[in-house]
Amino acid sequence: MKTRSLRRIARSARRRAQRGMTLIEIMIVVVIMGLIASAVGVGVFNQAKRAKQQTAEQEVRAVEHATQLWQQDHPSGCPTVAQLQTDRVLDHHSRSRDPWDNDYIISCDNGDVTVRSKGPDGQEGNDDDIPRARR
Q: Could you tell me what percentage of the chain is helix, strand and coil, using 3-state DSSP and rounding each to the nearest 5?
């Protein structure tokens, strides 16, 4: 008696194993994988955006320091990034444009140097400028 029921259970298990997965099961797995991929994608894109902002902040500080050094030799002028690179005050391997491919804006007023980037939108004078306008 026990032998028959064990054989029946074994046959039933073999049949289930041979059937494979149903279409619904495959669709559920695909949906779960899509949800995981979209969650990871959102995190990666946000991190890339933040990395561009941090890069721009560092480059603004570097250009600002280079401009201050340049002004020691040229007290009455205000250079461009290309001029800083030509005069070898700023490394010629450094980027001459911000991460969004806009020119850095250098302002020199009475010895006070301000360098900024237009930010992601490429328009000057709003809250995404780097460094942000001091109000």
A: 55, 10, 35
Give per-residue pLDDT as tens, 114-135: 898 988 888 888 888 887 544 3
Write the DSSP string, 96-122: SB-TTS-B-EEEEETTEEEEEB-TTTT
Burial class (CB in 10 A: 0-12, 13-18, 19+), 114: middle
User: Strand locations in 2-122, DSSP E?
Assistant: 105-109, 112-116
> Does some domain include residue 51?
yes
Number of domains comprising the chain: 1
Is residue 95, in this structure, part of any structural domain at all? Answer: yes
Residue 17 lies in a domain: yes
pTM of the model: 0.67
Cβ-contact 128, 57 below 8 angstroms: no
Q: Which domain holds residue 39?
A: 2-116
DSSP designation for 132: P
Q: Cα angle vertex 74, ends 76, 118, to 5°?
A: 75
| 33 found inside a domain | yes
β-partners of residue 107 are 114
Total residue count of the chain as it appears in this document: 135
Tokens of 26: 């495959």
